[in-house]
Request: fold
Amino acid sequence: QVQLVESGGGLVQPGGSLRLSCAASGRAVSVYAMGWYRQAPGKRRELVATFSTGGSTFYTDPVKGRFTISRDDAKNTVYLQMSRMKPEDTAVYYCRMWGSVNYWGQGTQVVVSS
Reply:
């Protein structure tokens, strides 16, 4: 069975950095497009970044220039490097795999506060 497990969340100060990991099992991340979403308290889940099978990336405006999505095929893991973080980045972050069947991770909590 396909499983996506996020990790790396936690508390970080404004201006700090944090790296999230999405470890996949059952399917290769190199074969399917991957993405990161987030959901802040009281808000709907929103797209953060995507990584296509061809290696192209896309970022939504709130995180553009601050976040970087990457993929390690050997570890079958997708990462989200977050820098210059803001309190507005506080949310539960979710990993997603696209395909004939789509999968979601359980989410990892990120809190940006001084």
